[in-house]
Amino acid sequence: HPPVTFGPTPSTHDHCTIGGMIGNNACGNYSIMSEFYGAGPRMAHNVADMEVLTYDGLRMHVGPTSDAELERVIAEGGRRGQIYADLRRLRDRHADLIRARMPEFPRRVSGYNLDGLLPENGFDLAYALVGTEGTCVTVLEATLKMVDSPPCRSLVLVGFEDIVAAARAVTLEGFDDVLIDDNRRLGIHGEELGLLPPGRGWLLAEFGGETTEESDGRARALLAALRKADGRTGDKLYDDKEAEREIWEVRESGLGATAYVPGDPDTYEGWEDSAVPPENLP
User: Fold this and answer.
1) Which is it for the CA torsion 9, 14, 19, 23, positive or negative?
2) Helix (H, G, I), strand (E, B) or coil at 173
């Protein structure tokens, strides 16, 4: 079997857990890959089913539920039947509002995934419970959907006048001069910062292929397209694993590096998972 990987990859992937990712419906750097070549961008899309424990002691498996299975579970009664019946009533009462008001853009990770209970989404209780942050159940076990992992990868870094120009060009992984300045003030990633092309906003894109020539070719096609973009200040292509690792380290320093900067007041979490549809980002 070809090598596989897991799509959602938060910046904290060197120490985060699958359970925590289920709790907060994680996305991350490779969610674009799983969006287009796998099950979807968010953790909710990539959990096939789960075994969960409710706070009153009921242990059960949850996942997609056919209409016939839903009727059978409710008819059996008991605590499980009651939960499914109550959820179906909740769904039926608010289905039109859920369809109208729950946006379907890739980075929508906040709130309860009530859209998973809609009949067109298969009454998927695993999907609905991902992102509930421990408020509904304790997750004991999860079966995950994997995505093919290309053996060769090439990383493209494109510099822009500012982060707004970068967002106007294309919506990808990105970071701005605030992150770079904070890294410098903290005295970290000095060598890595020297790898950046000039600019005050940067886009980061990784391409995969069966060979380095194939991944480099895809990367160069993006570079050719972006050289016409307004506000572009430079670019670099890396197909060396060590250089790629160092560039990703700069990007992944975001939350840690900008939270505690000497001389600045502490920042507080709350907005780091805010999101807008990609077409509205600039």
Assistant:
1) negative
2) strand
Question: Cα separations (Å) of 146 from 6, 24, 247?
Answer: 5, 19, 25
227, 281 Cβ separation under 8 angstroms = no
pTM of the model: 0.86
What pLDDT, in 10s, does the model give residues 237-263?
A: 988 888 778 777 776 666 555 666 778
CA distance linking residue 218 with residue 201, whole number of Å? 22
| Closest CA relative to residue 146, chosen from 243, 275, 3 | 3
What tens digit of pLDDT does each residue of 198-209 get? Answer: 999 999 899 999
Residue length, the chain? 282
Report the candidate in 230, 231, 209 with the shortest Cα–Cα distance to residue 221: 209
Of 196, 228, 223, 185, give the one whose Cα is nearest residue 207.
223
Helix (H, G, I), strand (E, B) or coil at 86: helix
Instruction: From 204, 190, 187, select the one nearest 260 (Cα to Cα).
Output: 187
For the residues of 44-76, what is the DSSP string, one character each? HHHEEEEEEEETTS-EEEES---HHHHHHHHHH
**C-alpha span between 77 and 81 (Å, rounded):** 4
The residue written with tokens 């070719």 in the block is: 217
CB 124 within 8 A of CB 57: no
Q: Which of 180, 209, 208, 206 is nearest to 195 (CA)?
A: 180
